Amino acid sequence: QVELVESGGGLVQAGGSLRLSCAASTRDFIFSEMGWYRQGPGGLRDLVATITSGGSRNYGDSVRGRSTISRGSAKNMVHLQIDSLKPEDTAVYYCYAHGTYDVWGRGTQVTVSP
């Protein structure tokens, strides 16, 4: 079973930046799309950003203009940087991969202090 391993969460001050990384446990095939979603306290899981294997990017409204998603040098690896962090960015961030089936990571907590 393929797993997604997330890293880079933690406590960050407002105005700062964070970088999240996600790596899949397999390199036998390439996911057609990878990305990040987030879920705040009591909220729904919302799109943060996705990137296709061809490099097309899609950003959620809440982070558009201050975030960058990129694919890593290794297969099935993706990075997300968010700048100018706000307290409302506080959430659990989930890595996502889409191929023949969808895979979700376990999530990494990001807390932005005022």
Provide a descriptive summary of the structure in words.
The protein has 114 residues and is mostly beta strands. It contains no helices and eleven strands. The strands form two sheets. Strands 2, 4, 5, 6, 9, 10 and 11 form a seven-stranded mixed sheet that branches. Strands 1-3-8-7 form a four-stranded antiparallel sheet, with no helix packed on it.
The multimeric state of the shown protein is single chain
Give the CA-based shape. Answer: globular
| Stretches with pLDDT under 50, minimum 5 residues | none
Number of strands: 11
Largest sheet, in brief, is:
7 strands, mixed
Structural class: mainly beta
Distance between the termini: 40 Å
Number of helices: 0
Mean pLDDT: 94
What is the radius of gyration computed over CA atoms, rounded to a whole number of angstroms?
13 Å
Order of helices and strands: EEEEEEEEEEE
Helix content: under 10%
Note the beta-strand portion.
over 45%
